[in-house]
Amino acid sequence: MVKRFMNLLVLVYAMQSGITVADGTANNGLHAQAALSAASKPVMSTVGDTPLAPVEQQEQQMREPYVIVEQVLERVLAQLEAAKALRKNETAEVKTVHNLVDSEVGPIVDFDLIAKRVMASHYKYANPEQRERFAKVFKHSLVGTYALVLASYSDQKVVLLPFKGVNAKGKRERAKVDMEIRSDEGKVYPMTYAMYKTQEGAWKLENLVVNGINLGLTFRNQFKESLRAHKGDIDKVIEEWNSKAIDL
User: Measuring CA to CA, which residue among 99, 83, 245 is closest to residue 152?
Assistant: First the structure.
């Protein structure tokens, strides 16, 4: 099951390498201008030295999740092209891209939250050490798979679709950033980044849906199946997950 799901991730992330980011809205002016460390924080409320009017500030904040995803994609792809231009060998490139994904994409992904949801009801039965270890292994497997495929594929395009806004209902503000991954062969794969706003005001990725496949739910089913196979032994599940992760 682990191997089969890793193959699924390869298929999913393969479509993102070397892609061109296009804005599907009428406004194409929101492109990466700031460092990623600032991208995961609330959008600035000024333009230059001029404070934004309340209405403009509210509109900007309502587009914040969209802007963050756009910035991250553009920064990753720009640096990916630079890494490919300096290619020495495949192994070196994968390691370079792994570091790129970890440093650029990692800050906007809530790995701990996703890992907790993957463990589902079994999370409360795991001790703190097991929880921390699984979150670390989970992150490594995702980043490693993403990096491997980014280093291997090219000539794809991503079109960001019109942003539908922030859903302020419930305990947390949430938003979905929809896009299409378009291949040279004319195939179109819909993808949705599910984001939520933390108590500190940062937007984080909490799930990913690709071509109708809910990756968070798929991970959860994988964990449940592995736990059943290992008769409830969480340590063995973590060991299995780690053994299938891409070793960089």
Answer: 83
How confident is the model over 69-99, as pLDDT tens digits?
999 988 887 887 776 666 656 666 677 788 8
CA distance 117 to 115: 5
Query: What CATH number should be reported for the domain whose range is 2-26+52-244?
Result: 3.10.450.710
Look at residues 67, 4, 80 and name the one whose alpha carbon lies nearest to residue 36.
67
Residue listed under structure tokens 């305990």: 171
Which residue, 144, 136, 149, is CA-closest to 12? 149
Please name the residue that has the structure tokens 């053994």: 243
pTM of the model: 0.73
Picking from 161, 183, 165, the residue whose alpha carbon sits closest to that of residue 174 is 165
Q: How many CB atoms lie within 10 A of CB 131?
A: 18
Residue pLDDT, tens place only, 24-64: 543 333 333 333 333 334 443 334 455 555 545 556 677 99
Domains of the chain by residue range: 2-26+52-244
Distance CA 135, CA 112 (A): 6
Nearest to 33 by CA among 23, 43, 25: 43
What's the number of CA atoms in the CB half-sphere (13 Å) around residue 132?
3
